[in-house]
Amino acid sequence: MPEDLDIELIKARKLKEMREHALAMERSKAKETQKETLTEKDMLKKCLYDRGGEVLDMAESQFPYQTKILITKLISLIRSGDLKDRISGGELLALFRSLGLNIRLKTNINISDHGKIFSISEKLKEKE
User: Fold this and answer.
1) Quick one: average pLDDT of 44-73?
2) Could you tell me the pLDDT band of residue 56, with boundaries at 50, 70 and 90?
């Protein structure tokens, strides 16, 4: 009987070690996937200009799943050489809108009057 108890304890310890090892492997895979996604986003941001990064960030906050797919597709086009030019913020916004994703951006309208810059709301208040 004592031998059976020892064998059961050894089996239980080994099983616990195997579970911990499997959990550690899953965590490392999740971290690698997250790093890869960040790397792809950073790669894409290098190809953007003229508020492109801002459009990408807003798209990611509003439509995270769809933006992740689009980032992957754009990166594959860049790697294959099919997309050689840089992408402006307006072009990226038009791409999202053509896919049916209406990205809302924060915009300000400023007016320059005699060397001073006013927001449109301030200018309208002056006229009243």
Assistant:
1) 90
2) very high
Rounded distance between C-alpha atoms, residue 11 and residue 119, angstroms = 73
Residue ranges of domains in the chain, CATH in brackets:
2-127 (1.10.8)
**For residues 89 and 50, what is the distance between their CA atoms, to the nearest angstrom?**
5
Residues with Cβ within 8 Å of residue 30, at least 6 apart in sequence: none
Q: 59: closest CA among 25, 102, 28?
A: 102
Q: What would the mean pLDDT of 34-49 be, rounded to a whole number?
A: 79
Strands annotated E in the chain: 48-49, 87-88, 110-113, 116-119
Mean pLDDT on 78-93: 89
C-alpha dihedral sign at 116, 89, 61, 78: negative
CA distance 104 to 4: 67
In whole angstroms, what separates CA 16 from the centre of its chain?
A: 36
Structure tokens at 32: 């690698």
Helices 64-80 + 2-46 axis angle, to 10: 70
